[in-house]
Design a protein that fits this description.
13% strand, 6-stranded antiparallel beta sheet, 7-stranded mixed beta sheet, elongated, 737 residues, alpha/beta, single chain
């Protein structure tokens, strides 16, 4: 690109440098500072005031000297000629009004070409750097770069919650979409149910006929003709393939395009159809020929069962997503500033933070649900391996026997042997079990793209009420100041704390007893990390920690006195009225056994916590002491960090995300555990399916060379496939979700 633009620098180059940020800053001493210059438009320039920032050297128009300044001047090259702004605007107006386009566009085309060239060069450099880093990233469920359905973080806007999914004909974007989406899901489930029934019936009939053909010396009755049984097998298998035409189409396209578990199924069906057709055309059916239509129909049927299970999972998830209740969406934080602030101080070298925001609509639910399984990425290679082994067996048989029927039978046998029954169940079964487990706590994880992203999370955001649920904070003592009435102190404190954080609200309301005694509070204000301010009976009331009182000049006991009374996870709460200390409340924090077990599990999984603290007493030292957390495993956000995180956790009417939950700690962690269980179940099943495909390919070639594949009993082939399927499904069934 550089070879195309060897020319003398001009004003266009200066403008391109300005737009692309290539501005050179030349240090200038205060004595040698040049006078500021401006570009005139319609009137003569005026003298510019002194400043300490930057000046732009954009022209040579003389102006009165400005006072010297300290800083930098901006060197943008030679001074460009004064632009003809008025004529330029007039030309645009004339072009809009008359519709005529001026021929004098060469200068603007050149400018656009240079600017595009510069941007492409910068984008290329950026891509080269990020691509190299991605090669060495290690995540929970992938190695060597990102999954195909994910985009780079740099492409996301601040607080963007998920990569742009594949577009669909209709998705859930608003409450008005719910009936149409629900209808679409029901229709899809009905179609797959019908396909399961038809495929299952065809597979059953074909297997029964195949078993009869293997057990008897000749087919009974009307099936005894040399073309009748092949014709019946061809018609039944074609009917099953016809109702599942999308599976065949996707599978064949997956050989060259996006990997899909349908590829192995499609190859098996095509091979069996080809065998039945050639046997029918050549009239080559004998009792020694084993038609593979039955096993192929069985593979197609189980493939459809897996898809129906997926459809049922999506429909049931949508029932929870579309309920008219308050939800929260968990998503991976991408804003660089908030991410840096939130994770600073944690023992995570590469933090990936999961935050939640309240919302009503879980946007893009259907697109997320349609994401490919993690194990799908290897299906294309498996299909190539199976097809290559089948072609090898076909060629060996043709060369050895010169019999087309025998060669096609070997080809179909290897394809049916290599096609796993658990092709789609591999991902459908863990997803279904995950959905049922997550639904019990009100959580929804739409699809495998979200499961993969949740697997890369190593920091989660929680609140104080998550860590100290009701009953964990108790009153340890009250000390009035200068004989202040205790009952009045309780009324003041309870009135201010009536709408405060749940961890402390119940403590003060329980002291009050009668809720009707709560006084009216005007101008209530929460000061993050410090306490609450309000006006009761025209008196300013402060309830908070030492920091809040110091901000308002309230005289307090010595720090040594406070430290003496805040041992063993106890904290001091001060009450000040009209600028004077009125009473002190001592509260004790106790660990919750269930929360402690969850935190221990999260810590062993390598997860850290950031606490958006709605309890002004909650700090890092308290959490580490209460739950025996190591240093660097938990962090309480300060005021500045809380402000940076606010946009990421603020309510939105609709939001993208990786998981929907009820906003509670149990629902949030329950969804994470269910997703982790699904990922582990699929990973173990994928190992079994991989072994079954590779072993079957090798076994098919070896049996072809020894001549044993042609005489392999059909029941043995079916039982072989069923054994691999059962072994693959054991792991998801016994996995903890």
């Amino acid at each position: 690109m550089a070879d195309s633009y060897h020319h003398t620098r001009d004003a266009v180059d200066d403008l391109v440098d300005t737009l692309t940020g290539r501005i050179r800053l030349t240090p200038v001493t205060p004595d040698a500072a040049q006078p500021a210059q401006t570009q005139p438009f319609r009137q003569a320039p005026q003298a510019q005031p002194a400043h300490t920032g930057f000046t732009q050297d954009l022209g040579s128009y003389a102006v009165p000297a400005a006072p010297a300044h300290t800083g930098f001047t901006q060197n943008l090259g030679q001074a460009p000629a004064e632009p003809a702004t008025g004529s330029f605007v007039d030309n645009i107006a004339n072009a809009i009004n008359t519709g005529a386009i001026s021929d004098e566009t060469t200068r603007y085309d050149e400018m656009a070409a240079r600017l595009t060239s510069n941007l492409e060069e910068e984008a290329g450099e950026s891509t080269a750097h990020t691509g190299l880093l991605d090669k060495f990233r290690l995540g929970g469920f992938h190695l060597g770069g990102k999954a195909d359905d994910e985009t780079a973080d740099s492409a996301a806007q601040p607080f963007d919650t998920a990569e742009i999914p594949v577009s669909r004909r209709r998705d859930y974007e608003s409450a008005e979409d719910a009936p149409a989406v629900r209808k679409e899901l029901d229709e899809n489930l009905l179609h797959l149910t019908t396909a399961c029934i038809v495929s299952g019936a065809a597979a059953l009939v074909l297997l029964v006929l195949a078993f009869i053909a293997a057990a008897l010396p000749a087919m009974p009755g009307v099936l005894a003709g040399e073309t009748v049984y092949p014709a019946v097998a061809l018609v039944l298998l074609a009917a099953a393939a016809g109702i599942n035409w999308k599976t065949l189409l996707n599978g064949l396209q997956g050989l060259a395009k996006k990997p899909t578990p349908d590829s192995l199924t499609a190859l098996a069906v095509v091979g069996a159809l080809l065998q039945a057709l050639i046997v029918l055309v050549t009239k080559g059916y004998t009792n020694e020929v084993t038609l593979l239509a039955g096993p192929a129909a069985l593979v197609l049927c189980v493939n459809t069962v897996g898809k129906r299970m997926n459809a049922a999972t999506v429909r049931d998830n949508f029932q929870l997503v579309s309920k008219n209740v308050d939800h929260a969406v968990a998503y991976r934080l991408k804003d660089a500033g908030a991410l840096r602030a939130a994770s600073q101080g944690l023992a995570q070298p590469h933090p990936s933070v999961l935050v939640s925001r309240p919302t009503q609509i879980f946007r893009g639910f259907l697109a997320s649900s349609a994401a490919a399984g993690t194990s799908d990425k290897n299906q294309q290679q498996f299909a190539w391996a199976a097809g290559g082994c089948a072609l090898l067996g076909f060629l060996i048989t043709v060369i050895r026997t010169h019999n087309l029927t025998s060669a096609v039978t070997i080809l179909a046998s290897i394809l049916c042997l290599a096609a796993p029954l658990a092709g789609t169940l591999l991902a459908a079964m863990p997803a279904r079990l995950m959905q049922r487990s997550a639904a019990q706590v009100g959580a929804v994880v739409p699809g495998w793209r979200d499961i993969r992203q949740l697997g890369r999370i190593n920091v989660i955001q929680v609140t104080a009420r998550d860590l100290f649920p009701q009953g964990c904070v108790t009153l340890a003592g009250i000390k009035p100041i200068k004989n202040a009435p205790i009952d009045l102190a309780i009324v003041y404190a309870a009135s201010i704390m009536a709408e405060a954080c749940p961890t402390l609200r119940d403590v003060f309301l329980n002291m009050l007893g009668d809720r009707s005694m709560i006084a009216k509070v005007d101008d209530r204000e929460a000061v993050y990390g410090k306490g609450y301010i309000g006006w009761v009976n025209k008196r300013r009331v402060l309830v908070g920690n030492r920091s809040l009182m110091q901000d308002y000049g309230v005289k307090l006991p010595s720090l040594e006195y406070e430290q003496h009374h805040t041992v063993n996870q106890r904290r001091m709460i001060y009450l000040a009225v009209s600028g004077k200390l009125f009473a002190m409340f001592q509260v004790a924090y106790q660990r919750d056994p269930d929360t402690a077990a969850v935190l221990d599990s999260l810590r062993h999984s390598g997860l850290s916590l950031i606490v958006d603290c709605d309890d002004f007493n909650c700090d890092t030292a308290l959490l580490e002491a209460a739950y025996s957390l190591p240093a660097g495993a938990v962090k309480v956000l300060n005021t500045a960090e809380h402000e940076l995180m606010n946009p990421a956790t603020a309510w939105l009417p609709e939001s993208d995300g990786n998981m929907l939950h009820l906003g509670s700690f149990a629902s949030f962690v329950g969804g994470l555990e269910a997703a982790a269980g699904a990922a582990e179940g699929e990973r173990k099943s994928a190992v079994v399916v991989t072994a079954s495909v590779l072993i079957s390919c090798v076994l098919g070639v070896l049996l072809t060379l020894t001549g044993g594949l042609a005489t392999l009993p059909l029941p043995a082939l079916v039982l072989y496939q069923a054994a691999w399927c059962v072994l693959a499904m054991i792991f998801p069934l016994f996995q903890r979700y």
